[in-house]
Design brief:
The chain has 470 residues and is an alpha/beta fold. It contains 14 helices and 21 strands. The protein has three domains: 149 residues, Response regulator (Rossmann fold), CATH 3.40.50; 227 residues, pyruvate-formate lyase- activating enzyme, CATH 3.80.30; 57 residues, Beta Barrel (OB fold (Dihydrolipoamide Acetyltransferase, E2P)). The strands form six sheets. The protein has a six-stranded parallel beta sheet, with helices on both faces. The chain has a five-stranded mixed beta barrel with strand order 17-18-19-21-20. The protein has a three-stranded parallel beta sheet with strand order 9-12-13.
Length: 470
């Protein structure tokens, strides 16, 4: 990366679009303010982790964080393309940014840029289009703060052999994400992610440990291990998952550890042993299902049957007891008849999910499914997604209503009213209590009631060690 002193921004060709600070009479010429940057992040927790690293790159170059697009000299849109809707949201954000501040240098980076730079290049006002690896070398391309007549496109199909990472987080956040892995070697017929992020690559274990210690030393109370498939951590080394080993190495770091998405094949005896052994690991798992129909699972090229998925979920209950358990569902996949949809709906109804992320099927050019005949109309896809979301809401409500009388561990994130603080439990539930000075405090709470989607409770004891809950 090209490094430049802060004085670089005082050169005329780089300060043309910057905000100025008016000097007092007789105090000399007006001073240029430091350049500012705004980040707009779409998609998964992995993108959020990478935005934190981009923020670190910009602040190292002398940039301030802008509060809005209108105040920014540079706007970075960290894009997502997992569904058509996510790509559409990225384009809408670009159009909105250009309307609010046509002078801002606009950078579209990440997954959408990697797989469909042409669509982004057609958006008026885009200056730079950077792929999933090129966004880490952003200052190799951003040589001034001038708008471009045509976008500068930097996309490579050669992915690095090791996942890129760095020790960075947004100031003031109670939780931080650690990227431990990138890429995917699976071939799900609907998914564009392998094209966007390349093959599986892992972050070295010692580097993950270093990040965890860095965050802990700066007061972060929870870290979220994230990646495309965190259960594939280390498989690029010897074909075996080293996630259990990583959890052992992080066990002594005084932070709460939350796992992002896992697949059922990741739920090995070795992993269950760590989940039982280490109380710092949150009582929350997210296991994507996608469909409860074996016919559709086979067409999707998923690696399990509905029966195998059920057995894995029941094993979670046997080994860990009631926990927060989330899943992903795709509604209206090509070939999904009314009967096959009902298989999925009834299958989800029979399992102890505590929340469900539901997506209508979205055709992604470049995937195997894109060549399939779309037998389900958009209207039917939306209706099926609506019914699945209603079921998800019922299951969330049922889990919340089961909580009064239970003791949970809560990391408080924000003050919602005078003497009221709101936080996230180990089980991934919103909890509110009366108290003072609880921001970024990890406390034990007895749940007393459920009001709408928020649990109300009372504090017990003093500050909690991560993992103190039952």
């Amino acid at each position: 990366m090209i490094r430049r002193p802060v004085s670089f921004f005082r050169k005329p060709n780089f300060t043309k679009n910057l905000r100025t600070k008016e000097g007092r009479p007789g105090s000399g010429p007006a001073l240029f303010a430091m350049p500012s940057v705004l980040f707009l992040t779409f998609g998964c927790k992995l993108n959020q982790a990478e935005t934190a690293q981009l923020n670190h790159l910009f602040t190292s170059e002398g940039y301030e964080l802008a509060r809005s697009a209108a105040q920014a000299d540079v706007v970075v849109v960290n894009t997502c393309t997992v569904t058509g809707r996510s790509a559409s949201k990225c384009r809408q954000a670009i159009h909105r940014t250009v309307r609010e501040n046509p002078r801002a240098v606009l950078i579209a980076a990440g997954c959408y840029a990697q797989v469909n730079a042409e669509e982004l290049a057609a958006c008026p006002g885009v200056d730079y289009i950077l792929g999933t690896d090129e966004k880490y070398r952003i200052f190799d391309f951003l040589n001034d703060l001038e708008k471009k007549k045509t976008p500068c496109i930097q996309i490579s199909r050669d992915f690095p052999k090791q996942a890129r990472t760095g020790t960075a987080c947004f100031p003031g956040h109670t939780r931080s994400f650690i990227k431990i892995q990138d890429g995917c070697d699976r071939a799900c017929s609907y998914c564009i992610v392998p094209h966007a992020r390349g093959p599986v690559r892992s972050v070295p274990l010692h580097a993950v440990q270093k990040q965890a210690r860095y965050f802990s030393a700066r007061g972060v109370k929870e870290i979220v291990l994230t990646g495309v498939h965190i259960g594939d951590y280390g498989k690029d080394r010897d074909g075996q998952s080293h996630l259990p080993e990583l959890l052992d190495c992080l066990a002594d770091t005084p932070v709460r550890i939350r796992l992002s998405s896992l697949n059922i094949e990741d739920l090995t005896d070795a992993l269950f042993t760590r989940l039982e052994k280490h109380p710092r690991i949150c009582r929350h798992l997210h296991i994507p299902l996608q469909s409860g129909s074996d016919t559709i699972l086979q067409t999707m090229r998923r690696s399990y049957t509905a029966r195998e998925f059920r057995e894995a979920v029941l094993r979670i209950q046997d080994r860990l007891g009631p926990i927060g358990l989330g899943t992903d569902i795709i509604a209206g996949f090509p070939g999904e008849t009314d009967d096959l949809f009902m298989e999925t709906l009834n299958f989800c109804r029979s399992l102890p999910f505590t929340y469900m992320h539901v997506f209508p099927y979205s055709r992604r050019p470049g995937t195997e499914a894109a060549a399939m005949k779309e037998t389900v109309s958009p209207a039917i896809r939306r209706e099926r997604a609506r019914r699945l979301r209603l079921l998800g809401e019922e299951k969330s409500s049922l889990f919340q209503r089961s909580m009064p009388g239970r003791t949970v561990e809560v990391l408080f994130e924000k003050q919602t009213a005078p003497h009221r603080f709101n936080g996230l439990s180990s089980e991934y539930l919103r909890v509110e209590v009366s108290g003072e000075g609880l921001h970024n405090a990890l406390r034990t709470v007895v749940v007393e009631e459920c009001e709408n989607t928020v649990l109300k409770g009372r504090l017990v004891g003093g500050p909690a060690e991560p993992g103190c809950g039952p």
